[in-house]
Give the backbone structure.
Amino acid sequence: MAKKIDDETIEYIGILSKLELSEEERQQAGTDMGKMLDYIDKMQELDTEGVEPISHIFRMENVFREDVVTNADAGEQMLVNAPRQKDNMFVVPPTF
Amino acid sequence: MPGQYETVIGLEVHVELATRTKIFCGCSTAFGGKPNTHTCPVCTGMPGTLPVLNRQVLNYAIAVGLATHCEIARYCKFDRKNYFYPDNPQNYQISQLYLPLCRNGYVDIETTEGTKKIGIHEIHMEEDAGKLFHDEQGSCSLVDYNRAGVPLIEIVSEPDMRSGEEAIAFLENLRTTIQYLGASDCKMNEGSMRADVNLSVREAGSNVYGTRTEMKNLNSFHAILRAVEGERARQIALLESGQSVELETRRWDEDRATSFPMRSKEDAKDYRYFPDPDLMPVRVSDELIEKIQKSQPELRPEKKARYQREFRLPDYDIDIITGFKHLADIFEETVAICRQPKKVSNWLMGETLRLLKEKDMDSEDICFSPEHLAGLIDLVERKVITSTVAKEVFELMFEKDIDPEQYVEASGLKTVRDENALQKAVEEVIASNPQSVEDYRNGKEKAIGFLVGQTMKAMKGQADPVRIKEILRICLTSANVL
Amino acid sequence: MNILSMTAVELSRAILAGRVTAVDAMEAVFDRMESLEEKVHAYITADREAAIRRAQAVQERIERKELTGLLAGVPVAVKDNICTEGILTTCASKMLSGFVPAYSAEAVYNLEKAGAVLIGKTNMDEFAMGSTTETSAYGVTKNPRNYDHVPGGSSGGSAAAVAAKECFFALGSDTGGSIRQPAGFCGVVGMKPTYGTVSRYGLVAYASSLDQIGPLTQDVTDCATVLEILASQDAKDSTSISRDDTDFSTALVKDVTGMRIGIPRDYLGNGVDSDVRNRILAAADVLQKKGATVEEFDLKLVEYAIPAYYTIASAEASSNLERFDGIKYGYRAKDYDGLHNLYKKSRSEGFGAEVKRRIMLGAFVLSSGYYDAYYLKALKVKALVKKAFDDAFSRYDLIMGPVAPTTAPKLGESLRDPLKMYLSDIYTISANLAGLPAICVPCGEDSKGLPVGLQLIGDCFQEKKLLRAAYTYEQSRKETCGDARAI
């Protein structure tokens, strides 16, 4: 039984991930995600009671840098790839 | 009746830490600078770049946690908070949700009913966002990432405050403590200390919290006080009219003295926090905590006690001077040079505070050096200048830290000791103020004060008023010269 | 002298000896590309003049004896999700069209320090999401062994370039098999080192906790040599580790006496093509004859690795790819109405279908109410998978099996059913989940003449064991079959 991913969920996921889908894409996304979730639900079979979740394989801790300025004035370097810029700043639609 | 409602306030305080570099890259945190020049591929979110934690951020955060009586977690992690906004170059903020660094602390505040403990729920480390500017033509906004990645701690209080005044007292206490630690300059006007206010109301006596709102964009203590009042009134009005308060984030508009909801259908408020896989966990050792504990500087309560012991200043003076770390530093350094605590205190409590208020400045911005203040006190002590002249000189010192001795010399402000010149000035004043002369002779002792004042004015303050009075008396009582 | 018949190590020796120049080598690569690229399409960016200039500069340094390294003058192809200073880096996505980074990946710096010369950037699945190199926004790469088939993916361009001799070696990235599987499909050597061995700085992240850069080469000797140069602890990557055992070429010893090798029963079970199974069993024979013991065993939790992998990879990807928003670099939609519409349009037009599918799945599994059931659960499964491998490595030095259940599928077959495509990663993803090193070496062909890849998986930090076994196998095959490829 394929999991039903309704339009509302797809709409919500679209807001979260900033993707705009056409009607056709929405349908497809719902089906695909349903199938995929059905499949990954297999994990639920496994008893993980008391298992510590791990993000990293190694117990590496305390990776620091010292508080020393190592970067020079960036000048205009950070903006060379910007689709639009003005006064050495990135241009975005009005946020006010 | 509004009087039946109790206000419940919790604060989320963001403080920019005084590190030299950003939290995850080697860019300078210096304030100002041309837009996007204090940036690098890491803090502008370029593809493939990675964060590495600045050790000093952890040290400062632990110091603040210890000073606010928090439990320091021995194991903490960074999480990603995902949301799209242009001030956030990666569209996620690296913060701490699941395992924050500090928990369960408190600070004491003074209220009309005595000392009150305000709980601290947690303190965590995170990165600041960039700045958005609105283009003058209004057609777009512009993004500057110089502040993006500046280290922050977020201090989340328990909902323990019951009035705007208590909220301010809590913030003042935090500010003083953090300034004492040197962990931040805590300047609200530059944004290095910011507070969001969570507020709800409930009927007095109830032990259930009402629905709260979160208010943002509060840039001064004044704004916080007004916003608390405004929001309290708004919520009570809603409840009184049978409506309910909505759980939401609101933006305080200081000009219009009201708040507006920040809602948008594009703003789902589902941050999808998860542990940042680019950063390794932090383990805090007992040794590190001990080391930081040992190197904690003298904090305000200890300093107050010492001032009473060592300097025997009035409590009122101690309270004010120790209220600002920078002020206390200037006080101690000046006293170390001139050994006159009360005189130093007088200059700080009087002229300094007056000028700060007049110019709307923070005590952090004081620029005169202790050497110069000590020099000025010495000039007055040695009667080289009068206190009137001293105040004038001080104003210049306050503005641009001039050397008082040099300035007095160069500007010829020394007290005039030339008896002939004094005599001449007194005679002129007597001649042009017959009414006061008559009053004095008729037994009105007070009239002489006016004449002293007139003579001082004629001498541009550069005379010893005691000597002037003596000369006046001699002139007025001696034979009817005039 | 046929330059292109040399391996990377042979070429650098010839260059250092003055028999060939770096420029000759680069010219040879571009001549080869001229005749083959039209069919193979391994590269997204390859600028002949610029590459020749780089080769000239390196040659001068070699002649001044400034460069004496193991890869001096050797032309290298780099996967297009690895940043190269001043050179277009697109991740095979429209979203990064026109992006020219101001920095190179640490791995690229390490190669340049060793004298390698960049040819260009290779094609891949968009943002490394795919197993066929068909999701690229810049066209499909074809398998040089049979143009009707895919080269595998996501490092399909790199694998194809090595197989077609359009480079001497290449860099790829491996998140769930993206180096090993295309190496297997194209009949070359590919290796994913232990997580943290090669700096990820400058590798455009797909799934940060699983991504590793590694080499694709013509033989095991080149593989060990290149990995030796790539490996370094990098202060810019908090997840990179310090190792003092990166002299990998010392492991090129033809001896597996006493080595215990396990084959997980599931790895040869249902769903595995019989030709593939037979080639792997033949390889097991070869190793056994050389003194290793090989036996089948039950590796636990194999079937749970894929769901955990796709949960973790999608979740991390959904966050990692948020920075592509049309503001700082890359593609920006032409028409939009306000900020959020700019985000939505730029991303919807800039990302391809597979990338969007994974971003949405990732956003879902992290969203409010689902985090514990999916993401956190997956991290727990990951812990159990790691433990299952720990158990296995208490009994075996290495684990062996096929790199994929089949040989390279035909073009256009895989994308029709994404889930089926995901399932074909079954033998490779466990190594990423558990951070293990793994290598793929060619082990013959199926009945259609397509290469079969033998995968060896080692415990963390056991690259030397892997390389020794792989080298022994490769050399033994050469002895018995002459040109290894001819089986």
Observations:
- The mean pLDDT of chain B is 92.
